[in-house]
Write a structure and sequence with these properties.
The protein has 477 residues and is of the alpha+beta class. It has twelve helices and 21 strands. The protein has a five-stranded antiparallel sheet, with no helix packed on it. Strands 1-2-3 form a three-stranded antiparallel sheet, sandwiched between helices. Strands 4-5-6 form a three-stranded antiparallel sheet, with helices on one face. Strand 18 and strand 19 form a beta hairpin. The two termini are 49 Å apart.
Length: 477
């Protein structure tokens, strides 16, 4: 198992911790986390060398690259150290205390020499760099390897060096019509730049005689491939979202489809699509929205089976006996209490349960997991049963599978909302549940809902539990 295999085996929580590191493991974990969450990969890159291949994280993807064994460098032992030279001995690439370190350096040099020349920065390349306003982007206008590069319309200049050239860049900015060049030129050292994919103007898809942008569709799996976009929410470029068009989109998601045509959305993407349609439905109806949401978007609730209740009660007993460990959270206790009481749970909670079991299944069979093991029950086993244990896993996964298949998931979260959910949940887990007051630890809860007129209520909250209560609040709601 190499480093990439170990990263792929980490749970979501473990990935988040490792991704904060500055080493190769941190970069690989950040890429993996981005892949799992469906968010853009970080603008960081790393190369990890193995015996005959390299693990390369760059340009938003991770791949293993074979390294040709025909290395045209040599290693000499000099003064107790191992030195890497070019084949003719005219250039030294450094000396190292062990042969292994010298060989690793040699493979690294060879890898970069055989790397695709398209990775290098040249005139016409698009690049990004850190600026005071965040990550900036632009196109290279000129590269200078010696002398002084003056930046037009400014007093700024850069000394150019063969090993770190000076680069003149025209800034590009993003607008409603896509990316476009500006009149602004800046200068930077090449070592501060990262090559990126070419920036382009906004893609559109032609329907009903008009060219619609990606934001007009509920399903956009590939922003650069309009043929993959589905479920248009805009009626026209002028009117945008209308009740008629949103109604057609909802019908297309239902069992009968729109005029007999049901839209085909991959199960793993359906939740996000339905969330966008539901949000659009609420926007176009506003205060006139019916009390009941459309059946295709309606959320069910589910009563935990007896086995789930018993597992959760077992976890509560273990918690009372002190087996949960210091890291056990109030969120875990609240979930165990909810399931042990047999309270109905929402589709959103079912989704959270399925996600929990998927992340923590790597702990199954570890020390203290099974009866008779030393240290039984381990904190990991306590947490597992707090979420319903093995019966809870089977129950949550079977419901999730059915809901995905039937397309009836309500209130699904977008990736941004999923990240925000996790952040708020992490705060509650680390510092305890929020109280109802208006202090720093309070949720500013009010008995009289000031937003009732806008049809905003506690039951709309993703943390709200069926029958009252909240995953992050101390008091019922």
């Amino acid at each position: 198992m190499d480093l990439l295999d170990r990263i792929n085996a980490l749970t979501d929580d473990q990935l988040r911790m490792v991704a904060e590191r500055d080493d190769a493991s941190g970069v690989l974990a950040a890429y993996r986390l981005a892949e799992l969450r469906g968010i853009p990969a970080p603008e960081r890159s790393v190369v990890v060398l193995a015996e005959d291949y390299a693990i390369v994280a760059s340009d938003g993807k991770i791949q293993r690259v074979d390294i040709d064994g025909g290395v045209t460098k040599i290693i000499r032992e000099e003064g107790g150290e191992y030195c890497v030279y070019s084949e003719d001995g005219s250039r030294s690439f450094g000396c190292y205390p062990t042969m292994r370190e010298a060989e690793e350096r040699l493979r690294q040099i060879h890898y970069f020499e055989q790397a695709d020349t398209e990775k290098s920065i040249r005139e016409g390349s698009f690049v990004s760099w850190n600026s005071s306003g965040g990550r900036a982007r632009g196109r290279v206008e000129h590269i200078m390897t010696e002398g002084v590069l003056g930046v037009p319309d400014s007093d700024f200049s850069i000394n150019a060096e063969p090993d770190d050239p000076a680069v003149l860049i025209r800034i590009w900015r993003q607008t409603a019509d896509g990316w476009g060049e500006t009149e602004t030129l800046v200068g930077h050292k090449m070592s501060t730049l990262t090559r990126i994919e070419p920036l382009s103007k906004q893609e559109t898809k032609r329907e009903d005689g008009q060219d619609f942008p990606a934001e007009a569709f509920a399903y956009v799996p590939d922003p650069e491939s309009p043929s993959t976009w589905k479920l248009r929410l805009w009626d026209s470029l002028e009117e945008r979202e209308t009740r008629t068009q949103i109604g057609a989109a909802i019908a297309a998601l239902g069992p009968g489809g729109f005029r007999g045509n049901r839209v085909q959305i991959p199960a793993e993407d359906l939740a996000g699509v339905k969330r966008r349609v539901l949000a659009a439905w609420r926007r176009v109806w506003g205060e006139d929205a019916p009390e009941e949401i459309p059946n295709a978007l309606k959320q069910e609730s589910f009563k935990p089976p007896q086995g789930v209740q018993e597992a959760a009660q077992r976890a509560l007993d273990w918690i009372a006996e002190g087996h949960a460990g210091s890291g056990f959270t109030d969120v875990g206790r609240a979930r165990a209490a909810q399931l042990a009481r047999g309270d109905n749970v929402s589709e959103q909670t079912i989704g959270r349960m399925a996600s929990f079991f998927a992340r923590h299944s790597v702990n199954i069979g570890t020390e203290g997991w099974n009866l008779g093991d030393e240290g039984f029950p381990s904190p990991g086993r306590v947490a597992w049963d707090a979420w319903g244990g093995d019966p809870g896993r089977t129950w949550a996964e079977s419901i999730s599978e059915r809901l995905d298949k039937n397309g009836t998931y309500g209130y699904p979260l977008s990736w941004r909302q999923e990240v925000l959910y996790d952040m708020i949940e992490d705060v509650a887990e680390k510092f305890g549940l929020f109280n109802s007051g208006n202090t720093g630890s309070g949720a500013h809860y009010m008995d009289a809902n000031p937003f009732a007129g806008k049809r905003i209520k506690c039951a709309n909250c993703v943390f709200c539990q069926v029958g009252g209560g909240s995953e992050i609040l101390e008091r019922p709601v």
